[in-house]
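Give me the fold.
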Amino acid sequence: MFNYAQIKDGIVVAVQQSTSEISKEGLISIPEYSTEIINKLYMDGDFIDQPPRPIRIISTGAMQRRFTIPEEVFISGDAAATVIKSRLINSAYCDLDFQDVIDGINYICGVLQAGGVIADATARAIELLQDGVSSEQP
């Protein structure tokens, strides 16, 4: 039996067995059939665990919990900030890389700084848009 790993963009995407030898771009011969190498990075003949990917999509509840109570109370007094926050928490999920989300968070933080609720709008926006954790995933 011949065993192969299919490599795409340096990542093992599949393994397969064949009764005959196969010579095809993207297939490499492996000593034994094992699905444990799927999703591993293939570099210099070795299969390496990929570094964890940052979590950039979080639940809307997770986004809401990132705001403090004083921030939420103050936001409710600004019509535009209220609409933006409402859109954030009424979506199916919150994509931290989506430009409308980034712009909305920056606007809200500007309102919070102007109102004296926070000292630094840029620093707070960075905190609110930081990578998620596993418990924040939708």
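The mean pLDDT is 95.
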